[in-house]
Amino acid sequence: MFSRRSHCFLFAGFLLLFGCVNPRAASTSTFKTAIQAALHEDPLFLMAPIPVEFADSHGTHYTDDRLEALVHVGVLDKLSVMVKESPFSGMLDDRKRRVLPGVRYDVSDKGKQFQRSIKRLTVPTQVIVYADKQVVDIVRYSEPATSAAGQTVSEVTYTYKLVNIAEWARNPAVKKYFFTNRNNQLDENAPPIEAKAFLALMSDGWRVPRM
């Protein structure tokens, strides 16, 4: 018959056996964790120069159809401002740059809710995120091997889906100008997307050096 102390040791043993995962082990669990950490730093975001200003041309406001679509859904504000002329405007006649009426496209209060700093870019940059990536499954992985650089590496094939999709990203005008290659992926019921990642074994576990 087990004593109370024996029960405590037995319970602790189960916790150690089933509750702890070795981060250096090559397994679907550790690979899934490592890839998800990398995907967190690799969301889908708008490829647009924001904020940006345009001077009027012959008394007419400059209009950018792509940015206008974002104004339409409330992600950007369009403001009438005084804009310094392009530095290329006076190159031929050597005149000084003028200050002209123009427009400024900038992130709206609504758009700021979707702003995030992306660390994986060369310089940390504020971007407007419209979806995150979530690992669904680890399909297969190669047996860990030593690379030419002396690192233990593995090629992992996995599937992921888009989550936290911004409602404005599904607007037809926005999809037309920004997401022509991802229209089907922005559907909640879209099938998982297959991708590959190379993982390297570090002192604290598996990491994705770059996506």
Detail the topology: elements first, then pairings.
Elements lengths: L3 H16 L8 H13 L3 E2 L6 E4 L9 H8 L3 E9 L14 E9 L1 H4 L2 E4 L6 E17 L3 E2 L5 E12 L8 H7 L14 E10 L2 E3 L4
Antiparallel strand pairs: 1-6, 2-4, 3-4, 5-6, 6-8, 7-8, 8-9, 9-10
Give a written overview of the molecule:
The protein has 211 residues and is an alpha+beta fold. The chain is built from 5 helices and 10 strands, in the order ααββαββαββββαββ. The protein has helices at 4-19, 28-40, 65-72, 109-112, 172-178, and strands at 44-45, 52-55, 76-84, 99-107, 115-118, 125-141, 145-146, 152-163, 193-202, 205-207. The strands form 2 sheets. Strands 1, 5, 6, 7, 8, 9 and 10 form a 7-stranded antiparallel beta sheet that branches. A 3-stranded antiparallel beta sheet has the order 2-4-3. A hairpin with a 6-residue loop joins strand 5 and strand 6. Helix 3 runs antiparallel to helix 5 (172-178). The longest helix has 16 residues, at 4-19. The N and C termini lie far apart (55 Å). Mean pLDDT is 83; it is low at 6-19.
